[in-house]
Amino acid sequence: MKKLSPPPAAVKDRIGFIEPANYDQHLPKLAECDLVIEAIAERMDWKLDLYRRIAPHLGPRVTIGSNTSGLSIQAMAEGLPAAIRPRFCGVHFFNPPRYMTLVELIPPA
Asked: pTM of the entire structure?
């Protein structure tokens, strides 16, 4: 990431804050997060499966968002445990996010 031009992070020295992780070995790390944003392919079945996998590892105050652009935020929220639903939203970043410090939050219906 440090070699990309323009850099994916707005400030190059903050790349150290990014820690690579995967769904097979690092799900317990989610308990330390304040914000989790899902940004996988636009398939409802994949997103709901991912939510089932990550839900047991989310902390009690985490906000979770989906970067979906066309799927129902309400339907995704319904795939989460009831305790997490009030903290779920859609999240759209405006491109390129390193230059446009604007984000849209979409609540479930």
From this structure: 0.83
